[in-house]
């Protein structure tokens, strides 16, 4: 009987090349880009069969933890372990944390390492490749999945296949790893055959990965081992200890382990894989109309060809354009030739340098209790629309530089203001003076909708002193 496989899902990516839809606080793995489910939900569904897979471990950025937990709840995923990384340290330390947590109970556990933001079109072919990789991993190999190339792509690293592995039909030793090639080198490798794209997905025993780290990256292993040992359960999460994890060297699995081990293996696979690295990729894999356009949302296309047109906000009308990408959200519009969308990061770098917020968050900002949206702002004032989930409540807090006025639009609110506690319904309002200790709670069975008018000399989100918070936020 085949061993149970433990999914380790890496959720720390920022997805800057898919701006303006992907933002730092809501990156691409949390977006529904190819269907009704987010890329994260698709990844989790891929390894949901309890006969083959254990409950997953997800390694994530602390800022995304509540959104990830909510998406797992929406997907009816129970029993997953969400591990919080105190800092970004690339994939090798993240996978080490997963391996150590597994090894505490099952040292030889098989780990399937999956990025949370990839697309896989052929689930049966994926399952077959995992089965082959599992056999190789049970024999001690550290397996990566090599994607059969459909052209001389220069944006991926390559793996050259070596000899076939005994006892694992379909798996091969790795002859060498190749960095991202230039166009001529990529074309030559494709013509020669035996070369595959490096997918960034892996399968190995926890004990073998830790053995290789001990041999090739001992400082990393020591730091992560300390972070796991000193970590703690916190509500629905496992928080790695910050100081040792932040002290860990930052490196990828490829550089830290796979390119150094003598037991690297590759399973060639063709299961409709894409890392969704740019808007041009979504055009390539998307369903096209008769003119070669991929269209999502409120879009009118007239005499347009081979375009990717998407609106998650206002109406987009495209007339007489070819080979172009247009992506509109509620607060930003991207327009670029399809062959220049890799340069979107230049835009997000400019936004960050200018101190703007459009690279960081959308107008609608999700919180564990619900969401808020800034609908107007000016000198000394800001207006927000706040939605609170049934039964949820905000932190008990105060502000040093602003006062607030709350108007209930829909639902039932319970307000704490200093020593008072009172309820409001639609049409009623109250004031929160500067410095008052306050809390907002939804005591109804439906979402609470509220308009908040802020006034003061400084209206930033960091003007919050939390005195009590059931979500563990500082």
In whole angstroms, how far apart are the ends?
47 Å
Tally of structural domains: 3
Number of separate strands: 28
**Which structural category do the helix and sheet elements fall into?**
alpha+beta
CATH superfamily of the largest domain: Spore Coat Polysaccharide Biosynthesis Protein SpsA, Chain A
Spans where pLDDT lies below 50 across 5 or more residues: none
Strand order of the largest sheet: 18-19-20-27-22-25
Output the number of helix runs. 11
What is the CATH C-level name of the largest domain? Alpha Beta
Helical percentage: 10-25%
CATH architecture of the largest domain, please? Alpha-Beta Complex
Rg, Å, rounded? 25 Å
| Largest sheet geometry | 6 strands, antiparallel
Question: What is the residue-averaged pLDDT?
Answer: 95
- Beta strand %: 35-45%
Give the overall shape: globular
Which fold name fills CATH's third level, the topology of the largest domain? Spore Coat Polysaccharide Biosynthesis Protein SpsA, Chain A
What does this structure look like?
- The chain is an alpha+beta fold.
- It has three domains: 5-274, Spore Coat Polysaccharide Biosynthesis Protein SpsA, Chain A, CATH 3.90.550; 279-352, no CATH class; 364-468, Jelly Rolls.
- 23% of the residues lie in helices and 35% in strands.
- It has eleven helices and 28 strands.
- The protein has helices at 39-46, 65-74, 91-103, 123-138, 183-192, 206-216, 218-229, 242-247, 253-258, 279-285, 344-353; strands at residues 5-10, 57-61, 81-85, 110-115, 119-120, 142-147, 158-164, 172-178, 195-205, 232-234, 237-239, 264-269, 273-274, 294-302, 308-319, 324-328, 333-337, 364-367, 370-378, 381-388, 396-398, 402-410, 412-417, 420-425, 429-432, 438-442, 448-456, 465-468.
- The strands form six sheets. A six-stranded antiparallel sheet has the order 18-19-20-27-22-25, with no helix packed on it. A five-stranded mixed barrel has the order 6-9-7-8-12. The protein has a four-stranded mixed sheet with strand order 14-15-16-17.
- The longest helix is centred in the N-terminal third of the chain and has 16 residues, at 123-138.
- It is globular and about 75 Å long.
- The two termini are 47 Å apart.
- The model has no long low-confidence stretch (mean pLDDT 95).
């Amino acid at each position: 009987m085949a061993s149970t496989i433990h999914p380790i899902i890496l959720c720390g990516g920022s997805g800057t090349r898919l701006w303006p839809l992907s933002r730092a606080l809501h990156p691409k793995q949390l977006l529904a880009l190819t269907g009704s489910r987010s890329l994260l939900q698709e990844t989790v569904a891929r390894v949901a069969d309890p006969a083959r897979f254990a409950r997953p471990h997800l390694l994530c950025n602390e800022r995304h933890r509540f959104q990830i937990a909510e998406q797992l709840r929406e997907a009816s995923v129970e029993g997953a372990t969400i591990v919080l990384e105190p800092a970004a340290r690339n994939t090798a330390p993240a996978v080490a944390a997963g391996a150590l947590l597994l090894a505490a109970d099952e040292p030889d556990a098989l780990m399937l390492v999956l990025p949370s933001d990839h697309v896989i079109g052929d689930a049966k072919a994926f399952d077959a490749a995992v089965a082959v990789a599992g056999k190789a991993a049970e024999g001690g190999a550290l397996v990566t999945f090599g994607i059969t190339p459909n052209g001389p792509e220069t944006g991926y690293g390559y793996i050259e296949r070596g000899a076939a592995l005994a006892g694992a039909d379909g798996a091969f030793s790795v002859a060498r790893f190749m960095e991202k090639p230039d166009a001529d080198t990529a074309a030559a490798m494709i013509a020669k055959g035996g070369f595959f794209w490096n997918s960034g997905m892996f399968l190995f025993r926890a004990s073998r990965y830790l053995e290789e780290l001990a041999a090739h990256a001992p400082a990393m292993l020591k730091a992560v081992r300390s972070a796991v040992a000193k970590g703690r359960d916190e509500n629905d999460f496992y928080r790695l200890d910050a100081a040792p994890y932040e002290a860990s060297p930052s490196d990828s699995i490829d550089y830290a382990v796979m390119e150094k081990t003598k037991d690297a293996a590759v399973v060639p696979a063709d299961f409709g894989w894409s890392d969704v690295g740019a808007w041009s990729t979504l055009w390539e894999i998307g369903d096209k109309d008769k003119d070669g356009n991929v269209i999502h949302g409120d879009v009118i296309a007239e005499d347009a060809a081979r375009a990717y047109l998407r609106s998650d906000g206002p109406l987009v009308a495209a007339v007489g354009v070819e080979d172009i990408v247009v992506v509109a959200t509620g607060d930003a519009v991207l327009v670029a030739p399809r062959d220049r969308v890799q340069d979107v990061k230049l835009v997000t770098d400019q936004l960050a340098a200018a101190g703007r917020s459009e690279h960081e968050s959308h107008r609608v900002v999700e919180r564990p209790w619900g969401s808020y949206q800034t609908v107007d702002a000016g000198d000394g004032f800001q207006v927000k629309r706040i939605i609170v989930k049934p039964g949820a409540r905000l932190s008990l807090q105060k502000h040093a530089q602003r006062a607030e006025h709350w108007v209930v639009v829909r639902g039932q609110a319970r307000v704490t203001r200093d020593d008072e506690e009172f309820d409001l319904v639609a049409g009623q309002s109250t004031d929160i003076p500067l410095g008052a200790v306050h809390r907002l709670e939804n005591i109804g069975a439906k979402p609470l909708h509220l308009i908040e008018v802020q006034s003061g000399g400084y209206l930033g989100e960091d003007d919050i002193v939390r005195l009590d918070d059931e979500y563990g936020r500082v």
